[in-house]
Each structure stands twice: as C-alpha cells, then as structure tokens.
Specification:
heterodimer, A: about 120 residues, alpha+beta, Arc Repressor Mutant, subunit A, B: about 350 residues, mainly alpha, 3 domains, three-stranded antiparallel sheet, 3 strands, elongated
C-alpha cells in the first residue's frame, strides 16, 4: 500500500542495479563460452542489451578468474597485446547450475505474477 | 618544442593510467594497467573510426572523465575493506550514541553548570576572558570526545578482526533474546518499589526532619535555617504525590499523557526544591561541645558552601531527567495503537 509518497528515480536505479548484478555474472559467463577479450565482450553484452561499464566488467572478470570460473591468456592481436578470457571447465559446470537456478527463479516469479497479476 | 598529435593523445592516457596505478597493489599494477590501457585504446580507435579522424586532447579527456576518477577506478579492483564491517557497525553506532549521551552530554551540562553557578570555577577559567574560557572548554570537550570515541572505535576494530577469525557473533541463542517490550508499559515491580520508598521516605521525613533541630546531642547540635520549613512541606508533598501516582501506575501499568505530565511536574518541582535547598544555605547552625562560636560558624559556612558547589551537578541531573520526562510524554502522545494481544484498557488518555 502506498502513502502517496513520490519514489525518487535513484531508488528505481538502485533496485535495477541490484536486479542486474546477479544476472550480469550469468551473462558474462554465458558470453565467455567463446573466447573474447574485454572490449569485445563489453560490446557484445551491450549489443545484447546488457550494457556494463568497464569499471564493473574488468574487476568482475578478475574475480571470476580468481574463483577459477574463467581462464585468461595474453595474446597479440592487431599489433596490440590483449587479454583473452574464456570459460573454464569449472565455469561451465557453474554456468549450467546458475542457469538452472535462473530457470527456477523465473518460473517462480511467473507463477507469483500469474496468481496476482500487476 | 610542440607536441606531435600522437604525443598529445598519449599523454593524458598515460597520466590517467599512472594515476590509477598509484592506488593499485604493486603485484597487480602491470596486469590491470595493461588491460585498462588496451580497453581505452580500443574505445578510442573505435571512436576515431566512426569520426574518420583522430581524437583531439579535449575529446580524449572526455573519454577519461567518463571512465571516472582514478582512485575510484582503482578501488573497484580492490577487495572491499572496512575498519568496522556491516555486522558490527550497528552495535558500534549504538555504543557511540550511548557514550555521547551518557558521557559527553553530561560533560557539557556540568561544564555549563559550573561556569554558571560556581563563582570560583568561573573566576579560575575566565581569567583570560570569556572567549578564552569558551575556547578552552571547547578544546577540552573535543579532546574528551576524541579520546573516548577513539577508544570505542579501536575496541570495535579489534572486535571486527576477532569476528572475522572466530565468527563469534554467529553463536547466538534465540531463547536468550529479551522479552517483547512495550515502551509505554510501566513495570509493576518498579511502581511497587516507588510506593514503598515514597511512603518510607514520608514517614522518615516526618519523624526526623519535621523539626529544624535535626540533631540535638550533648556533643553536637545541628539546626536548619527557617527556609527549611518550606522545603520540608515541599518534599513531603512531593513524596505523597509520587506515592499516589505510583499507586495508580501499579493498578494501570501504562503511561498516559496525564500521568507522564504529572511525573514531569513532580520531577521538575523536586529538582527546583533541591537546587533551592543547596543554594539557600539550609544549614543555620552547627554547635558542638568542642567548638568555639567562630569555629562553629566557619564549619556551618563550609558545609553550606560545599552543598552549593554541588548545585551544577544537581541542575544537570534535573535537566537530563526533564528531557527523559518530555520524551516520555511525546512518545505516549505519538504512540501507535496498541496491538490487540496487549492487555491495556487505556494506553493514552
């Protein structure tokens, strides 16, 4: 029940950010089923409607690599050294489990919305 | 010597990367900066391809500005760190507020009271003028606050480290949580104690203090000043009112606006009487077998002066009590409707 108070746009932005945070990890892992370097990964995500700024993406890639979900390799391409990332074996297993979890959440949410539509 | 176009482009990027590197851990600097540099160059190349020309220095700076302040960019690569983490922070903040309320606020009130009512203290601290006295008091307060809150913070930083290692906060027992508390409920045990104490005080007061001669022995005699008559009746009246109010609270153990207001009035009157007693020189005469007249007068004046010196403390306590009482009235006034499972007939009158 609302009390007529106006909700500021920053609240919506924060909620959207929270909602996206977990999804971005799944998206990054899914994109890296094929090897890519940071910039092309960022472009690919943006093209698919999940824009992510570099200040979020690169620390996330490092974290996922430290956790063993990604492997990376420095290679020269177009006369520049680039770091290429791809999903590790452990990353593939985790991605499958995350996708299954995502399906569960999605079906639960659909069920809730069906029971009480907006 | 003028800069070439390439130098003009590279220089802001290099300066930016150097600034980011400054905040990164030494072991990861090269790796992170190489990747960041590559990303920046890819972005710039793409933009240049779109425009069909090289970016100028202003446009490069716009790209860097969009990336964010170097320290913030570097910070995203670092693990989240905090002196006091989110688990302990609410407890830390609670302790800070308690320390401020129970130590720093009384400190300020006592200082104001001493400066207002104690002529010797005032004279000692205003020798170099009022401005100097205020600056000195302010400095002392900041030093006290700094040391006190600093000590609390250090204790919590240590606790945070211990918590990370031992996770001691995870060991808790739901059965030991305090019972549900209604802030407007008056504990019946407290009311019972109040009734007994006020009645006992009344009896003792009438028995011992009704006469201005409160002690009359061969070796010593203590006589109170005529103002005592008013004080005697005043304190007695307050004891009777307090006992009656506590009796009502015992039967109906919830604060109401009326009863909370009566408590404010009686506490205010008690504080005023106490201050009057300390300030009026309640002791008229002390005589003793071994005391000469001059010595007896000296002792009497010393006792009266000693009592008067405690006035600021009593005043400060009175102010604190009044604040508590006013808060209680406001709390009762703004009370939300009492849940149905709470037995109460009239929470707010």
């Amino acid at each position: 029940m609302t009390n007529g108070t106006k909700i500021g746009p920053e609240i919506l932005e924060n909620l959207k950010m929270e909602l996206r945070r977990g999804c971005l990890i799944v998206a990054v892992l899914a994109q890296l089923r094929t090897e890519q370097y940071g910039y092309t990964l960022r472009k690919a995500l943006a093209d698919d409607g999940l824009a992510i700024d570099e200040g979020t993406l690169y620390p996330l890639l490092r974290r996922l690599e430290t956790q063993g979900l990604l492997v990376s390799q420095w290679r020269e391409e177009e006369k520049r050294n680039k770091r290429f990332y791809r999903l590790s074996l452990a990353g593939q297993q985790i991605l499958s489990q995350l996708l299954a979890e995502w399906q569960n959440i999605n079906s639960s949410l659909s069920k809730i919305l069906e029971e009480a539509p907006l | 010597m003028s800069k070439t176009s390439s130098q003009a482009v590279m220089e802001p990027i290099d300066r930016y990367l150097q600034a980011v590197a400054f905040w990164l851990p030494k072991g990861q600097q090269r790796d992170i900066i190489a990747e960041l540099s590559e990303d920046l160059h890819s972005q710039i190349e793409e933009r240049e391809a779109e425009l069909g020309r090289s970016l100028n220095e202003t446009e490069i700076e716009a790209v860097l500005k969009q990336r964010g302040r170097p320290v913030l960019v570097a910070n995203r690569y670092l693990p989240q760190r905090s002196l006091i983490g989110p688990v302990l922070f609410p407890i830390y903040w609670f302790v800070v507020k308690v320390v401020a309320l129970c130590y720093l606020v009384p400190w300020v009130l006592v200082w104001i009271g001493m400066m207002t009512f104690s002529s010797s203290y005032r004279a000692e601290h205003t020798r170099a003028g009022w401005f100097s006295a205020i600056v000195s008091g302010w400095s002392a307060l900041w030093f006290t606050a700094f040391v006190t809150l600093g000590a609390v913070t250090i204790v919590f930083v240590v606790l945070e480290h211990l918590e990370i290692k031992s996770r001691f906060l995870e060991n808790w027992n739901p059965g030991k949580l305090p019972p549900v508390r209604n802030p407007n409920q008056i504990p019946q045990s407290g009311s019972l104690i109040e009734v007994v104490v006020n009645m006992a005080f009344g009896v003792w007061w009438i028995d011992i203090m009704s006469s201005p001669v409160i002690l009359d022995r061969p070796e010593i005699k203590i006589v109170l000043s005529p103002v005592w008559r008013y004080l005697f009746w005043g304190f007695l009246l307050l004891a009777v009112i307090n006992a009656a109010a506590a009796g009502v609270n015992l039967a109906r153990p919830y604060w109401t606006v009326v009863r909370a207001s009566i408590r404010l009035l009686t506490n205010g009157a008690a504080s005023a009487l106490f201050c009057w007693m300390l300030n009026a020189g309640a002791l008229a005469q002390i005589t003793g077998a071994g005391l000469t007249g001059a010595r007896a007068l000296e002792v009497t004046n010393a006792v009266n002066a000693g009592l008067a010196k405690t006035l600021p403390l009593v005043l400060a306590a009175g102010v604190v009590i009044a604040i508590v009482d006013v808060r209680r009235i406001l709390r009762v006034k703004n009370a939300v409707p009492v849940p149905l499972n709470v037995k109460v007939s009239a929470a707010v009158v």
